[in-house]
Amino acid sequence: MKVLLVYPYFLTERGKDYDVRPLPIGLHYIGAYLIEAGHEVEILNLHGLGGNLDELRSIFEEREFDCLGVSLFNGNRFGALDCAKIAKEINPNTKVIFGGVGATFLWDFFLRHFDFVDFIVRGEGEETFKELLEAVEKGGDPESFLRIKGLALRDIKGRPVKTQERPFIKDLDALPDPSKYFKFQHVISSRGCPWNCTFCGSPRFWKRRVRFHSPKYFVDQLERLNKKGVNFFYVSDDTFTLNKDRVIDICQEIVKRRLNISWYAISRVNCVDEDIVYWMKRAGCIQISYGVESGSKAIRDFFNKQISDDDIKKAFHITRRFGILPRAYFIYGAPGDGKKSIQESIDLIRDIKPLSMVSYILDLYPGTKLYDNFVKKNRVTDDIWLEPIEDIMYFETDPKMNSDEVLQMGRRLKKAFYSMLPNFIEELEFEEKDELKEHYAAFCARLGFTFTHGDYAQNELIPNKERAAEMLFKKALKWWPNHDAFLGLGMLYQKRREFDNSIEILRQGLKLYDDSEELNICLGINLMNLGQFKDAMAIFKRFPSSPRAKRFYEICASK
Q: Smallest Cα–Cα separation from 246: which of 284, 285, 215, 279?
């Protein structure tokens, strides 16, 4: 069969949608599984389509497919319904299959309200999807569908029913490696999480069980993708560092194979130590995200987070000391949140010195304990999701809270973090490890450019951004003669019109990186600003294929 797998757009646009823009890794695994079962598969990321139904129709009309598989979170359910409806309008015989976290928890809702949705794959999808296609190919006998585990559908009377639960795949390495067929950056080395946080759907979806790919399977995948040109990865495991020996084996294998890659990972603060972070640094990890959630123990207990202040402080200290960017996640707007608890979060931020922070208002999603409590307490049903909303904010369900107070909590957190960030940069210190010196320099230079050209450069809440960048570039050069640190300082001095200082640092860099187009062009621009056009022309002439060099050469010639 010809199968089109899609990831639909969300209801509202986001200014920064790094976490939801990429294709879910599950689509790649299902795609590979179906390909090896003999099906033709195409995967489309429709996240950026933004509700343009004419363009969506055109995309579907350009393709022939027998089956449409749609990956759902909660916030993209209306995009999923648009995809299903248009696919059926184009070809009523198309089988529409929903899957993913959103579909798993709202299977009854979708089958009751939308007759153009044929099936729901609940939970882990590879085997269920394959068996469903086999049953469709054989003619679609209703009884054959009911024998497929992990499925939801309508019975002969049109009533939504679900079949038996499907056991989890025991050996993840038995799955086809999707990197053989697709190119992607978001990777995963395990499935599941053993903890039971009240705001998260993972405990119910994965039953608090964790299964692992072997280090070889995972690093083989990274290497195959690297050969396809991918050198940066998001490792999307709920807790990558859960098994210490396995993490170190993965990192040592990356180092052994000399894979020139960098990557982000997610961890818990009570699942890292110096050995783990050291090897992650050696293997190219540049950021670890930690769910801190709150500085208030009472609120962390409400989330059933099961971490202490000491756990948090230790994890952030180790991560910073080994030159990995520690990113802190905070949630605000929980019951009991107020001036005192937000101040506790600010005090904790001051102690742990994160170099990146993301804060969210507490939301309620199907499949979480908090959502279940909300449904029981308010005697509502899943039909609330017929409303055009992406989520339900907790404060909207609590008469003791109001939106102005909750929004003020978020503003306080962000203002406090960004105002302290330059101080965190100044206090950066690293472990004395000769083999990590080059890595430390690269870390500082990369972070420095965030303040001059990246997200932080545009952030008005951060004071003294240029000073922070200068500190970082200088810290980098104390550890290693890093190319980007020379360039960053040269550009910074040039911007201040300190042309002599800029020329001096750039020439230091060019002693090591003589062929660097960036360093040479920056030097040439300095010379132009000093009126030394002939010397600048000689530099630009070295790069005849560079449009920038050519443009500056012509300007010099005209002078």
A: 215
Say if 438 falls within a structural domain: no
Same domain, 153 and 191: no
Q: How many residues in total does the chain contain?
A: 559
315 and 269 Cβ atoms separated by less than 8 Å: yes
Q: Are residues 135 and 270 in the same domain?
A: no
> What percent of the residues of the chain are helix, what percent strand, and what percent coil, each to the nearest 5?
50, 15, 35
Question: Per the domain annotation, does 260 fall within a domain?
Answer: yes
CATH number at residue 336: 3.80.30.20
Are the CB atoms for 45 and 22 separated by under 8 Å? yes
Q: State pTM to two decimals.
A: 0.95
The separation between CA 139 and the C-alpha centre of its own chain, rounded to angstroms, equals 41
**Rounded-to-integer distance, Cα 378 and Cα 478, Å:** 60
Shared domain for 23 and 99, answered yes or no, is: yes
Closest C-alpha to 419, from 380, 384, 468: 468
pLDDT at 22: 84
Distance in angstroms (rounded) separating the CA atoms of residues 123 and 100: 7
99: containing domain: 2-162
Q: In whole angstroms, what is the distance from residue 335 CA to residue 343 CA? A: 15
Q: Please report the pLDDT score of residue 175 as a whole number.
A: 98
CB 364 within 8 A of CB 335: no
β-sheet with 325-332: strand ranges across: 186-187, 232-235, 262-267, 285-293, 325-332, 356-361
121 and 79 assigned to the same domain: yes
With b for 16 or more beta-carbon neighbours within 10 A and e for fewer, the 133-161 pattern comes to bebbeeeeeeeebbebebbbbbeeeeebe
Question: Tokens 């960004």 appear where?
Answer: 418
Q: Are residues 261 and 355 in the same domain?
A: yes
Q: Residue 18 has what pLDDT? A: 59
Cβ(327)–Cβ(288) under 8 Å? yes
Give every CB contact of residue 71 below 8 A, 6+ residues apart in sequence: 5, 6, 7, 8, 23, 24, 26, 27, 99, 100
Q: pLDDT at position 19, please?
A: 65
Q: Are 365 and 198 in contact (CB under 8 A)?
A: no
- What are φ and ψ of residue 6, in 5° steps? -130, 155
Overall domain count for the chain = 3
For the chain (559 residues), the mean pLDDT of every run of 10, in chain order, is 96 66 93 98 93 94 97 94 97 97 97 97 98 92 90 94 97 98 97 97 96 98 98 96 98 98 97 98 98 98 97 98 98 96 98 97 96 94 94 92 95 98 97 96 98 95 97 98 98 97 98 97 97 96 95 94
Q: Per residue in 201-221, is it b (16+ CB within 10 Å) or e — as a string?
A: bbbbbbeeebebbebebbbbb
